[in-house]
Structures are given as C-alpha cells and as structure tokens.
Amino acid sequence: MKKLQFFIIALLLIVSIPIPSAAQERVTIVYQNDLHGWLFPSSTRVGMVEMARILTPLFEKKPNSFYAMSGDLFTGPNLPDEMKGVSELMIWNHFWKQLDRQGFGERVLISAGNHEFDYGVPAPGSFWSGLLCANLVTVENRPYYIHCKVVRCESGLRVGFIGLLLTGNGRVLTAIEAQGLKIIPMFTALNRTIPGMGRLDLTVLMVHDNMGNIVRLAKALPAELGVDVILSGHNHLMFEQPLVENGIYIFQAGAMNECYGQVDLLVKEGKIITLENRIVTLMPSPLGHVTMLVKEQVDALGGKSVAVLNHSLSGSFSRRQENSLGDFVTDAFRWATGTDVAMTNSSSLRMDFRVYQDEPRELNEGDFKAVCPFQNRLVVGKVTGAQIMQIIEGDALDFSNQVSGITYRVDPRRPAGRRVIEAKIGGESVSPDRVYTLTHNSYCTRPENIKRYLYLEPGSIEWRKTDLIDYKVVIDYARNLKVIDYPSKGKGRIVTVP
C-alpha cells in the first residue's frame, strides 16, 4: 500500500512540472520606423509622449509585449543647426527613461538607420536604451553598438532582437571610416550573432535598408538560423499585411510618426502559429489639435506666412506612385525654370503637409524647408523624347520620379521597351527624335546617381546647374499660388494599368 501511495505522489509531481517548450505564448510587438525627428506634438501630429501613453497599459497587461523602432530617428524638422541630432536623441532618451522607470525599459528597442550618421557617429552610450546594430564593427571586428538583445519574459519566453544597417550608403561610410569603423555584410553578422544567443522562441531582425535588399536577405537565410520576423525601415512603406519571404514575415509602418504597426503573434515551440497585424493612424485629440493650433499661430508670428493649404499634400511614405506632394514640388520646379518637363525623386521629399479634418491651415517659410531638407540645386538639361521614354520605362518597374509637364500610362507586365502605353508632353504624344528641356535636382543627375534615378548612362545628358535651391523655389511657388489646392491622391499624371 505504501509503495502504491509513493508511486501516485511521484506521478503527480512529474505531471505538475511545467514544460515551457510545449506552451503557446502570445507576443505583441508595436513597431515604427523612420520617425525622422517628428517626436513632438503639433496640431496634426502626436509626439513620443502619446506613444508612451499608448505603450504603458499595453506593457502592464501583456508581459510578452515590446516596442521596436527600426532606424532613422534623426533628420526631419527644420531645427537650428545646433539642435540637429541633439533634440531627437534627447526626446528618445527621456521617452525610454520614462518607460524604464516603470520597469519596461528592456522592452523598448531601437536599431540604427543611415540618418543616425548625418551629424557624425553617435557614441555607443549616447542612446540610453542602447542602439542595436550587429554589422557595424571596429577594426578588431567587435560590434561598436549592441549587436543583439535577448529578453526573457516572465513566462520564460526568450525573444531575440538583432539590428542591421544598410551597407552601401556613402554618407554612412564616410562617417564611420573617419572613426576607424567598418560595415560587414548582414549575413556575416547574423552568422556571428545568432548562434551565441542561445535558445530563442522568437527571433526578430530590425533591418534598415531598401526593401529589395531586405527581401533578398530573407530569401537567403537558412532555416537553421531561425529568423521569424523582420521589422524594416528606410523606404517609408506601409504594409497592412506583412510580406512573407522564405517563411519570414516582413513589416513596415510608414514614416514621420504618422502611424504605428501592431502585430499580435501566437508562438509555440519556436514557431509562429498565427498572427494578426494592423496599422494605427496617430492623430491628435480635438483638444490637442486646438491647443497646438493656437500655439502654432503664436509661433508663426516669428516667421512669414507663405500660403494657405486646403488639402493635405501627401507623399513622404507613398513613394512608389504619383502623389500630391510630388505634383506640387515638380510643378514648382517647372514654374521656376520654364522647362517642358520637371522631375524629382520621391525619396527627396521628406515631409507631408497635413490638414486636420479638411480645415485649411497656413504654411510659413519654415514648413517648406522640411519638405526639401537636402537643399539641392535645380539643374536643366536637353533630352530627346527617346531618353524621356527610357526614364519612364525604368520607372514602370522601379518607380522613382514624380513629374510635371508629362502624363503617361504604363503596364509593368509588358516586355522591356514596350511598357509605356502612352506618353504626352504639353498634351502631345512624345516624339522620340524631338528635343525637350528637363529640370531635375543636382543629386540625382550626378554621374554616380543618374543610372539609378533616371535609368540613363552617365554623360548622356549635359546638365546646366542653376542658382535655384529646391526649397526656396517651393516657397516662391507657394507664395505665388497663395492657396495650395491639389487633389490628395495626385492629378492622375501617372497611370499604371492594373
């Protein structure tokens, strides 16, 4: 009898031992990217104070929850030179500190983007939260920043985060080489990092790079590395549903702190069983809007009013198509130079102009400086109709240029050389032999960049550099218009056949 009692007790003890690997766990990740300095509230935006308010109850209710920002905290608003990079870092650090004081600091993560190097190389300790970047290393091949972070949740769930930075950006390379640093390939960094992280129930990469490169990385990752999720940044894309490549889910949530993504995952035995993703638009409350509107009107007394905006000009994260911001800016360029056609790359336009619930707003000179922060000169060239067709043929597959003075229809499914269905300049069909005048920006037309942005060979066009600076031209054009009234989705200059 005693032996039977002992056996029953022992059996009960064995059954009561938890087996974490067999349990299902729910994980929530709130993610953003490319905040670009828009960390403070305005009449049309919320700041990091609001994000902290959103995260606090989430962290309290869901112990397996995280916030991740995938690069480009810096460079956006028209700040005084001495505040650039400083103010963004100060706000981020205090955002993290507020959450850390509540015991949530380890759940807040940020990885490096290329604009973190616009003002030099940040010191490793300058980010109080730590800065994730596994592929920026010293000459001894040691990670310069935190290469990875493993968070062990209360349930025993282990989630690993790894930061990766794009490898071919000239400004980044110049900055880091001056400090004796180097960038190694992402794949090399992952092979060095992941094996030393131990058993992980969820492996998350925070990658700041062009989406094409991210997709290629995902396709090349072997299953044994165990990568589950990529939180991406750089292209200002917004995915309502994630991309899926090689069984890896890829997320991105717009830009400029206009929204955030939230993905809820069910994880079991190191695999994602189910997920639900949503994009949440961030908008001030009516009280917040009115309060900041009054403040902005007071601030505007220190600067000149330029024009009234009737509808939002959007484009900073709808780069893969014609947008109203691109229409407005290229119209300004063509107005200033008098050319047949004007173009500019979508990625040079860095801030949307938003109105609040269709309420017109005044714009002053400082607003326009943030739209074109790189201060490129305008250049003018003579191009043949055949060269124009080559540019838009390239854009049919890899869209880059916003346009003015030209309308066209393309079908990217057609064979090369036949993707352009129709193209008109000044209402007339483009003639291959006719010579047209084209305005672009000085950056895209450099010999090292022209093939990427205009799909033309270096030296194929002779460009005349003007004295016109992009943002100043935009200011003058807005002042000339007095009222800016563009359709929110663009004027239908570029049509892609579905």
Explain how this protein is built:
- The protein is 27% helix and 27% strand.
- Residues 6-21 have low confidence and may be disordered.
- The protein contains twelve helices and 25 strands.
- The chain has helices spanning 2-16, 48-61, 86-101, 170-177, 186-193, 211-220, 286-299, 324-337, 365-371, 385-397, 450-454, 470-481, and strands at residues 24-32, 65-70, 108-111, 136-138, 148-152, 158-165, 181-183, 202-208, 229-233, 243-245, 248-251, 259-268, 271-281, 305-309, 341-345, 361-364, 377-384, 401-404, 406-410, 420-425, 428-429, 435-441, 463-469, 483-484, 494-496.
- It is of the alpha/beta class.
- The chain starts with a helix and ends with a strand.
- The protein folds into two domains: 20-281, 4-Layer Sandwich (Purple Acid Phosphatase, chain A, domain 2); 303-496, 5'-Nucleotidase, C-terminal domain (5'-nucleotidase,  domain 2, Alpha-Beta Complex).
- The protein has a six-stranded mixed sheet, with helices on one face. Strands 3-2-1-12-13 form a five-stranded mixed sheet, with helices on one face.
- Helix 9 crosses helix 12 (470-481).
- Helix 2 (48-61) links the parallel strand 1 (24-32) and strand 2.
